[in-house]
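User: Fold this; tokens only.

Assistant: Input:
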Amino acid sequence: MKRLLQCLAIAVAVLFCGTAATARTAVVMAHYGSSNDYTRTKTIGRITEDVRQAFPDITVREAYISPVVRRSMIARGLDAPSPEDALLRLRAEGYDTVYVQPSTLLDGGETAEVRRTVEAVAPFFSHVAMGLPLLYSPADCEEVVKVLLQEPCAANEAVVFVGHGNMLPSTASYSQLDNMLGVSAGKGVYHVSTIEGYPTLESTLTQLRASKGVKRVRLVPLLLVCGNHTLKDIDGAYAEGVRAAGYQTSTELRGLAEIPAIRSIYVERVRRLTGR
């Protein structure tokens, strides 16, 4: 019933408002989301705000990919539309040109879900386009590597960036990052690993053992948001595995989106997408 009402609202908007006379443009930032309001505000929320500041003449909305996050937010009285809901709302309000920029890291399952949504609602709009995730091409990885290498690495220390990972071909982006870090690091010891993909904890430990002099390992989340995966998985089981291998271990409790240079990449994504 909800979807039927939304579609009827769109039909009314198109019938009475038309498109040419009321041409309006919007950007939807499609985030996976976070149920922690504080963390969400200082990470993905800041990405959205940076986009708003960069494009003051365009309406910028947020959408949340995760059903779990949406339910948690809605239960607390917060507006948490899915990408589909956000797009249908915009059309009902008379927007005919919409750009969707996911804040996902990889072209994985969540990005594919947003892409399917964009394709499904495309007939309702004059123009709909979707941007690329953070790590899509080798050039994207090279850009992110430059940011990651700003992370300090002391003597006898290794920095391991730990991402979520998946079982899809896109998990290869983590190995690509790992290789690029190794090539570009100079004297520092930097690696990329994952919780549920490849490189694994075991493969990263093999690399660490081959690095002479490493006694301490600092884990840095390769996640936009510092949430449960950081606290329970990275600073939990993953850190325990590194300690069990004989290394002193610490974890940085921050999300990638707290780094201005990472947020600026998303702003540039929107700039390319909109042609502004």
